[in-house]
Design brief:
The protein is of the alpha+beta class. The chain is about 15% helix and about 40% strand.
Length: about 140
Amino acid sequence: MKTLTIAALAAVVSLGLWAVGRDRTPEVDPIVSGSIPSGAAGHSYTITNSVAKTACLAERGAAISGRSTRFTADPDCDAVWPGLAGARTWTQNGDGTVDVLDARGEALLTVVDGDGLAYEAVEPANAMVTFVAAD
């Protein structure tokens, strides 16, 4: 009888250890890997005015809010569109349009996602300005 009790007790302990080991989460893989950084670093654009035949560079930077990011344009962007060198914010409106705003928060241009990697100005109506991704 003692042998049967010890065998039953050993079986219960083994079953308990098996059940406890089964609930444990697997060990984390110790391999260290690298990753490619997200686009958080910013996006560069070549901005062109097809009528004036001018171009400049600008960059969309870090997030300011859920829909706005910092925006900086080279000083020669004023030749592409008046006041564009003073642009400070890129704000997505939720309707597919994006406002490029100056330091006072006034829209200099409103652009919409165009063909491929380009944005095309829709406001003001006479702005023949295109933003093409440079990165």
